[in-house]
UniProtKB/TrEMBL annotation, chain A:
Gene3D superfamilies xref list: 3.30.420.40
Protein name according to UniProt: tRNA (Adenosine(37)-N6)-threonylcarbamoyltransferase complex dimerization subunit type 1 TsaB
InterPro entries tied to this protein: ATPase_NBD, Gcp-like_dom, T6A_TsaB
Entry-linked NCBIfam families: T6A_YeaZ (TIGR03725)
Organism (species): Microbacterium commune
Bilayer-crossing regions: none
From TrEMBL, chain B:
Originating species: Microbacterium commune
Protein name as catalogued: tRNA N6-adenosine threonylcarbamoyltransferase
Highest classification ranks of the organism: Bacteria, Bacillati, Actinomycetota, Actinomycetes, Micrococcales
Binding-site positions, substrate: L141, V142, S143, G144, G145, D175, G188, D192, N287
Function: Required for the formation of a threonylcarbamoyl group on adenosine at position 37 (t(6)A37) in tRNAs that read codons beginning with adenine. Is involved in the transfer of the threonylcarbamoyl moiety of threonylcarbamoyl-AMP (TC-AMP) to the N6 group of A37, together with TsaE and TsaB. TsaD likely plays a direct catalytic role in this reaction.
Note on cofactor: Binds 1 Fe(2+) ion per subunit.
Length: 195, 355
């Protein structure tokens, strides 16, 4: 039984069984307020028998994204369950029906979008990522048909996780898919205060 | 000694603090700091701090459990800082605390960081058996994030904010003046070293919000940005005149101005409120000169000073666990799960979203 948690867009949590059937799902599409809602959503789906915890690793606005990852890791720690990091776009790709390559697109703020190109599923039933996730200026012409969304399903994320576990594959690093460095500038010389 | 076994999570600034207490007994105080990562920016960068919290949380929790010799199943409750602090940093702790509490099916207490600093003083350990904190007390909390003067009548029910900084926190002022003098980050210890051979009376820098005309509105408030500007102006004037800047004297005089205004206002609060007790907390309490001046002038004023061990003065999870344990001991129920991070949480909100 797998619990999946994702806060890369709205806040979504779900529990699926080993066959990928959804046992419970709780979500809000609100792109803000992840910290406020994550506890109640988890409490709605939580049950005994969770063996794995899947965390959606983004891309997504950093502040919100981290809340789900922190919650998923802590939940896994509490149950002694392994944490399976999965890029959030895989959940969107699993639910998208397309022939041939298509681009999963989500908002990345600052007039940018996060783009991942998929083409069907591979032998393990996992969406086939054919171009690594990247940032693009909003409005740019993409080569592939665009599948843009502001929501994703934690149940789909859990199913990708189930297939990754079954195939013994690792789809993401332990760290979030930030795609951007923290934009801080190193201070120059102190500014003069005298005129 | 018995009491509820509580794990506290603190992520309001640049320290990831995990603490475990049993009642008032300290079992673990684990701190992972991202201070080094902020050094080249000359101050805490919120996004850098938040990333570091996410990385440090799980290993810190595991380390704290090992140190305390307990398991997660043993816990009676989980506690977390809801605010005040850096919003994005706080949210990492809030997310983790909720995930942990729901996973374990344990009650969760969301508490106030500043009141946590006061709770640090009630914790005891094998090498520290303190007399209980007496009420009421005035508390002066000084760090890189806050400078607050509180009137504490009861830790779990009655804390009043008397005053706070209207601009920079005292710790920030140390960082900024250190940079101005070409000293590295964090500024506090550097200013201390530089001050060693300096004359604290060499230059009379201004004491913020200390004029008679400020007293009506800002009797207990602090301001350090004017002081920082005064130091900058003094240094620029000396440089323009082709003089060598006497770094030791500037550092010592600046430090004395900060300390003077902190201690003067804290003791004024003690006198005005008729409270002969002063509790010091926050990372800047590490400053030896501040402790010296506070102890000396408090003794002259007949005020007893309490200072928790330094490891409990800087931001830490043990004080958060300790505050929650006190709430539990006083029969208070857990917080409901709908709370968030509140970067400006008022000190009167000791527990956030109680049921
Ligand atoms: Zn603090």
């Amino acid at each position: 039984m797998i619990l999946a948690v994702d806060t890369s867009l709205g806040t979504t949590v779900a529990v699926v069984d080993a066959d990928g059937r959804t046992l419970a799902e709780a979500s809000t599409p609100d792109p803000l307020g992840h910290a406020e809602v994550i506890g109640d959503l988890l409490a709605q789906v939580v049950r005994p028998g969770i063996t794995h915890v899947v965390a959606g690793m983004g891309p997504g606005p950093f502040t919100g994204l981290r809340i789900g990852i922190a919650a998923a890791r802590a939940f896994a720690l509490g149950r002694g369950a392994p944490l399976i990091p999965i890029p959030s776009h895989f959940a969107i790709a699993l639910d998208a029906s397309a022939d041939g390559p298509f681009a999963v697109v989500t908002d990345a703020r600052r007039r940018e979008i996060a783009v991942s190109v998929f083409d069907g599923v591979d032998a393990d039933g996992i969406p086939a990522l054919v171009r690594p996730t990247r940032l693009e200026k909003r409005g740019v012409e993409l080569d592939e048909p665009v599948h843009e969304t502001t929501e994703l399903s934690a149940a789909a994320l859990a199913r990708v996780g189930a297939r990754a576990i079954a195939a013994g594959r690792v789809l993401a690093d332990a760290e979030p898919l930030y795609l951007r460095s923290p934009d801080v500038v190193q201070p120059g010389a102190p500014k003069r205060v005298s005129s | 000694m018995t009491g509820p076994l509580v794990l506290g999570i603190e992520t309001s600034c640049d320290e990831t603090g995990i603490g475990i207490v049993r009642g008032r007994q300290l079992l673990s105080n684990t701190i992972a700091s991202s201070m080094d990562e902020h050094a080249r920016y000359g101050g805490v960068v919120p996004e850098v701090a938040a990333r570091a919290h996410l990385e440090a949380l799980q290993p810190s929790i595991e380390r704290a459990l090992t140190e305390a010799g307990v398991t997660l199943d043993d816990l009676d409750a989980v506690a977390v800082t809801s605010g005040p602090g850096l919003a994005g940093a706080l949210m990492v702790g809030v997310g983790a605390a909720k995930g942990l509490a729901v996973s374990l099916g344990k009650p969760l207490y969301a508490v106030n960081h500043l009141v946590g600093h006061i709770a640090a003083d009630i914790l005891t350990s094998d090498d520290r058996a303190t007399a209980p904190l007496e009420y009421p007390t005035i508390a002066l909390l000084v760090s890189g994030g806050h400078t607050s003067l509180l009137h504490v009548r009861d830790l779990t029910t009655d804390v009043e904010l008397l005053g706070e900084t209207v601009d920079d926190a005292a710790g920030e002022a140390f960082d900024k003046v250190a940079r101005l003098l070409g000293l590295p980050y964090p500024g506090g210890p550097q200013i201390d070293i530089a001050s060693a051979d300096g004359d604290p009376r060499a230059i009379r820098f201004p004491r913020g919000l200390s004029k008679a005309s400020d007293m009506a509105k800002h009797r207990y408030d602090f301001s350090f940005s004017g002081l920082k500007t005064a130091v900058a102006r003094w240094v620029e004037r000396a440089e323009a005149a082709g003089e060598q800047v006497p770094v030791a004297d500037v550092a010592a005089s600046f430090r004395e101005a900060v300390i003077d205004v902190l201690v003067t206002k804290a003791l004024a609060a003690c006198e005005d409120r008729g409270v002969p007790r002063l509790l010091l907390g926050g990372g800047v309490i590490a400053n030896r000169r501040l402790r010296e001046v506070a102890l000396e002038r408090a003794a002259a004023a007949g005020v007893a000073v309490r200072i928790p061990p330094l490891s409990l003065c800087t931001d830490n999870g043990a004080m958060i666990a300790g505050l929650a344990a006190e709430l539990i001991a006083n029969g208070r129920g857990p917080s409901t799960l709908g709370f968030g991070a509140d970067s400006t949480l008022p000190v009167t909100e000791i527990q956030v979203s109680p049921a």
